[in-house]
Design brief:
With 121 residues, this protein is α/β, with parallel strands linked by helices. It has one domain (2-118): 3-Layer(aba) Sandwich (Rossmann fold), CATH 3.40.50. 44% of the residues lie in helices and 17% in strands. The chain has four helices and four strands, in the order βαβαβαβα. Helix 1 (18-30) links the parallel strand 1 and strand 2 (36-40). The longest helix has 17 residues, at 74-90. The protein is globular.
Length: 121
């Protein structure tokens, strides 16, 4: 069983998390065989280590972290690899992979451009 962690920055306003919760919920409905957790870097919980611990507790064999950041800034280039390395040490039997930032997805960029163009028609 493969686990998924959606990793977002976090904010003080709890409403900020709604879109990310919606993505998580859609994944759960579409592919219930993949346990999925939402984690945050700052201000909100669960933190990344807590989300990974939850998935490991569910018996996943591997985990992929999907950064829900538009660009690979310092958090993605510096913080995430450091945190992931600590997680790999804590869970040596569970491979933990990191995908690129969501903003680097050509499909997402195409969808955003389409949404913008639909808004001006």
């Amino acid at each position: 069983m493969h686990g998924i962690v959606l990793f977002a920055h976090g904010a003080r306003d709890p409403e900020w998390a709604r879109p990310f919760e919606g993505i998580r919920d859609r994944i759960r409905v579409r592919r219930p065989e993949f346990p999925v957790e939402l984690a945050f870097l700052d201000f909100m919980t669960p933190k990344l280590d807590e989300a990974v611990d939850t998935l490991v507790g569910k018996g996943v064999a591997a985990i992929t972290i999907f950064p829900l950041f538009m660009a690979p800034g310092g958090h993605i280039r510096n913080d995430l690899p450091r945190i992931a390395e600590e997680l790999r040490k804590s869970h040596p039997g569970v491979p933990i992979a990191i995908q690129t930032a969501i903003g680097e997805s050509p499909e997402l960029l195409e969808a955003i451009a389409g949404w913008i163009l639909d808004g001006v028609d």
